[in-house]
Amino acid sequence: MTNFNIQRFGRTLKWSAVMTRKEALANAAMMFFAMFFPFIVQMLTSYDQPILQAVVNLDAAMRVCIFIYFVVSMIGGSWLFNNMKTKEQRITFKMLPATDLEKYVARALYATVVWWLMGLAAFCLADVLRMFVSLIAGIGVVKSTIPDFFAEYFGSSVNSAFYAEYGCTTFYVALLAMLYAWGFWVHSLYILGGAFFRRHQFVLTSLVHLVLIMVFTPLLVHFVKTVDNAFFNNWKLVLAWSGAAVFAALGVLDWWLSYKIFRRMQVVNNKWVNL
Questions:
Q1: CA 15, CA 12: separation in Å to the nearest integer?
Q2: Which of 1, 101, 201, 221 could form a Cys-Cys staple with 78, CB 3.0–4.6 A?
Q3: Residues 76-91: what's their mean pLDDT?
Q4: Chain-centre distance for alpha carbon 266
Q5: 197: DSSP letter
Q6: What's 85's DSSP letter?
Q7: Residues in Cβ contact with 14 at an 8 Å cutoff, skipping those fewer than 6 apart
Q8: What is the pTM of this model?
Q9: Is 155 exposed, middle or buried, given 0-12, 13-18 or 19+ CB atoms closer than 10 A?
Q10: Closest alpha carbon to 209 in 198, 197, 221, 226
């Protein structure tokens, strides 16, 4: 069979959606409760408070939700092959009438696009419920935080200190590119961990990420301390774009390695890794 057939991929995607619907609903529910908890704290602390204080509390709760959504978006890759826990599940998935590429893309879409959409839906639902409860309870600020959420997450909020210092400059664009490339690499690391580790993918991949942070952070701090202001001002654009290129290349490498691991997976693998 050809390596990728759109009709065959569509059937594989439909099968994957049916088989993971309960898991997806459970994960979406957990995301909703995680997003709604900061709003509960905001409503409790804003009751009978001045409008200005309620606005500050709401902004803080929204930023906590941004952090939660970022974490959710990054760790979704750990569930890349969560449908292959048991021997029977591995046999079923490996024996599907589809190529490895089609099966891999179907699962990758679940670990990326579906996870991101579930997180967005959870936040929007939590925000709507927060507005409804605030209206009934008489809390002064009822406005939606969804526009502010997107502005903060995509770096276009004029209220952030980051934008106030670097906004509307070529360096600001380069910094955003490096941050997004770093996020792409972190997510790809969990994609690779989800393919490499057979069990406890989230925990083991997080430990690997922690070790990498502990190793490279002192090196980065030492580099920053040794660089003078003149050098930084002359080369800051090059450094930012170089960092973005490095993170993007590492992210692509992680995705490629995860696909290679999937192609080598057997029904019976090592106890801890899929090799």
A1: 5
A2: 201
A3: 85
A4: 28
A5: B
A6: S
A7: none
A8: 0.86
A9: middle
A10: 197
